[in-house]
Specification:
The protein is an alpha+beta fold and 504 residues long. It has 10 helices and 27 strands. The protein starts with a strand and ends with a strand.
Length: 504
């Protein structure tokens, strides 16, 4: 489902100016974005001499993603993997090269991590998912039974005849490697199918960068919840894979406690010590495997495992906020984007009081899924003062730049500025998230980084769809030193809009 790509230059990320290396030899950057691909979001970046070539590469990459999804998906009953899972036990089945490689990878990494990575972790995941539905913790007997099941040998591979034989009835899921594997091959196909110099494929925060390009990659802060919160790190990466795994987007709520969706197959319990791990590695499957494994292993085990993968660097964030970096991590950090703290100048107008930095506004909303129409709208969010003058751009999502004027209200204000800066994009790496719901924050600053006065402001949310709607939500708010929450029913394209002004 095609949707839009976020422009991050002074819009989506407050106070930052992400960048990508300027394309050479008349090459231009083309970006497109989809939703609900492999259960999450998908972003393409291509540098090419023409939009036609970029679209050719995009079409080929999408076809490859569809082809591989039809092999690996545990959610499609007709996928090759699902059909193999339905075969009788102890019966050799000839499988495709791709499925054989995937099953082999799980065997290898189960050994390399002493059982921390295991396709049968789905057994424990289901146990905790069922517990959440019942709102009752699993018993020690249930956990021990799950661990015993996961410790079994689940299949055996025969390389000579490319067969895979199931030995147990335990549920298996290929999540750890499948996404990274698919991203890598999609990159290769895109490069081979069209006249493009570089390709970046980002699925749910895991990405592969190939070709003549240095991509800016922002690492999501696991303790932040908005699309435009400041990142944990700014990276510059060329011809590598980046993967992030963590428990801050997905998990189970049982009573008052939150449990990670990542479980340790050796104990049958959700992991606790690490909340986020980001890995840079030459191979996509290595990056994906290490990022997940680091959430399960101890810090010493993670350090030792990383040393077995040439060129692997990492950033780990523990649940108590500790930051652990590998020795070579800083080689990828964009020194011009070092995160600094300091005082921000406040804007004073006569006797007006400045915005209290202890407060912020969170805008939560959801894009509606419209049956029979897979196209999602472009969207822009900005702030206007009482004089109806724009003071801050918060977000812009779109697909092709030529359609931006369809956001008529936003473009009338920002069109000139936008056309002068189309190459400032940054990829984002973070734990895989579910699509659909978004949060954007306003910290009370204008586009120059200065605090505005307290008072009345209007939040503008405009959506536009090709051959369809052009709608706008105008929500007036009194933003002073008192917390308040306002709701808006939304419209055809957006619903469940809340404006939450609160003390941080």
């Amino acid at each position: 489902m095609k949707i839009f790509a976020p422009l991050l230059a002074g819009l989506l990320l407050i106070g930052t100016q992400p960048k990508i290396e300027t394309p050479k030899n008349n090459q231009r950057l083309y970006v497109s974005h989809y939703e609900n691909v492999l259960g999450t979001s998908l972003e393409f970046k291509f540098t090419s001499v023409s939009e036609a070539e970029a679209e050719k590469a995009e079409t080929a990459a999408l076809a490859e993603i569809d082809r591989l999804s039809a092999i690996f998906s545990a959610y499609y009953a007709n996928s090759e993997f699902s059909k193999w899972m339905k075969q009788d036990l102890n019966t050799p089945v000839k499988v495709s090269k791709e499925l054989f490689e995937m099953l082999s990878l799980f065997e290898q990494w189960k050994t390399r991590t002493n059982g921390a990575l295991d396709a049968s972790a789905a057994v424990a995941s289901k146990l905790w998912s069922d517990a959440a539905k019942k709102q009752q913790l699993p018993t020690s007997t249930e956990i021990k039974s799950a661990v015993a099941t996961m410790k079994q040998v689940h299949y055996v591979l025969n390389k000579n005849n490319s067969t895979a034989t199931r030995l147990s009835s335990a549920p298996l899921v290929m999540n750890t490697f499948a996404k990274s594997y698919i991203i890598n091959l999609a990159c290769d196909v895109a490069l081979a199918s069209a006249n493009v110099n570089a390709v970046v494929v980002n699925i749910g925060g895991d990405l592969v960068i190939k070709g003549d390009v240095t991509d800016a990659v922002n690492v999501t802060n696991p303790l932040a919840n908005a699309e435009n919160d400041a990142p944990l790190a700014y990276l510059l990466v060329s011809n590598k894979a980046v993967a992030t795994s963590g428990n801050y987007h997905r998990g189970e709520q049982i009573g008052k406690n939150w449990y990670s969706h990542i479980v340790d197959p050796r104990t049958g319990k959700p992991v606790e010590g690490v909340i986020s791990a980001t890995v840079i590695a030459p191979k996509a499957t290595d990056a994906g495997a290490l990022a997940t494994a680091f959430n399960v292993l101890t810090l010493e085990e993670s350090k030792a495992l990383a040393l077995t993968v040439d060129g692997a660097e990492y950033l780990i964030i523990t649940n108590d906020g500790k930051r652990i970096e590998s020795k070579g991590w800083n080689a990828y950090v964009d020194a011009s984007k070092s995160i600094k703290t300091g005082k921000t100048i406040s804007v004073l107008k006569g006797a007006e009081k400045p915005w209290d930095p202890k407060f912020e506004l969170a805008i939560n909303f959801e894009f509606n899924r419209i049956e029979g129409n897979s196209h999602r709208p472009f969207a822009a969010i900005w702030v206007e003062n009482e004089a109806k003058k724009p003071v801050r751009n918060l977000a812009l999502w779109y697909n092709k730049t030529k359609w931006i004027p369809d956001l008529k209200n936003w473009y009338r204000i920002n069109g000139t500025t936008f056309t002068t800066d189309k190459t400032s994009y940054a990829s984002v790496t973070g734990a895989t998230r579910n699509p659909g719901k978004y949060t954007i924050k306003w910290d009370g600053k204008d586009d120059k980084g200065n605090f505005v006065p307290q008072g009345k402001y209007t939040i503008m949310i405009e959506t536009s769809k090709e051959h369809g709607t052009d709608e706008i939500i105008r929500q007036s708010l009194e933003l002073k030193k008192a917390a308040k929450k306002t709701t808006n029913a939304g419209n055809v394209e957006i619903s469940n809009v809340t404006f939450d002004f609160y003390k941080k």
